[in-house]
Amino acid sequence: QDRIPVNLVIETKHPNERGRAVEERVAAMLAEFGWDQPGSPAELVSFSIKALRRFGWLLPGLKRTLLVENDLGRWRDGKLPDGVQVIGAELALIKEDPEFVERSRQRGHYVHAWTVNEPDDIRFCRDLGVSTITTDDPDRVAAVLAE
C-alpha cells in the first residue's frame, strides 16, 4: 500500500477559556500518532508567544512559527523568541519592509508569508527569499514558481 506524505500545520487560537489545555491536548494527540518527536510532519503555529513557549516545553522537537499581523513590532530586527525558527507575516508587512526577510534570514530564521495570491506578489516573495507561501490559489503559485 502506497503512503502519501502528509504535513500538518496546527494553529492554536488565543485567547480562549481553555488556556494552556489547548496546547496540552494538541501534544497528547500528536503523541498518539508518534508525531511528538523531531522529524514529525507537524508544525505548530500561533499568534500567542505564551502558546509557543508551552509548545516548546511540551513538544521541544517540533517546528514552531510565530504569526504576526498589523505590525512586526519587536520582531522587526529579525530576532524571534527562543526556539522559534519561523515567523509567519502578513504579506502587507513584508511589502512595507522587504528588508525584514533578509534580517530574519541573517539570524537563521525563515519567513512564511500569508496570504499570497497574485502573480506579482508570488514573484516578490520568491525573489526576497520567503521560504513558505500560504495562498488561496496553490495552482497559480505552483505555475508562477515554475516559471
Quick overview:
By secondary structure, the chain is of the alpha/beta class.
Poorly predicted runs are none
Radius of gyration computed on alpha carbons: 16 Å
Number of helices: 6
Strand content: 15-25%
Helix content: 25-40%
Order of helix and strand elements from N to C terminus: EHEHEEHHEHEH
Look at the helices and sheets and give the structural class. alpha/beta
Count of extended strands:
6
Q: Report the average pLDDT across residues.
A: 95
Give a structural overview:
The protein has 147 residues and is α/β, with parallel strands linked by helices. The protein has helices spanning 21-32, 49-58, 91-96, 99-106, 119-128, 138-145; strands at 8-12, 42-46, 63-68, 86-90, 110-114, 132-133. Helices cover 37% and strands 19% of the residues. α2 links the parallel β2 (42-46) and β3. It starts with 7 loop residues before the first strand and ends with a helix. α5 (119-128) packs across α6 (138-145). The protein has a six-stranded parallel beta sheet. It contains six helices and six strands.
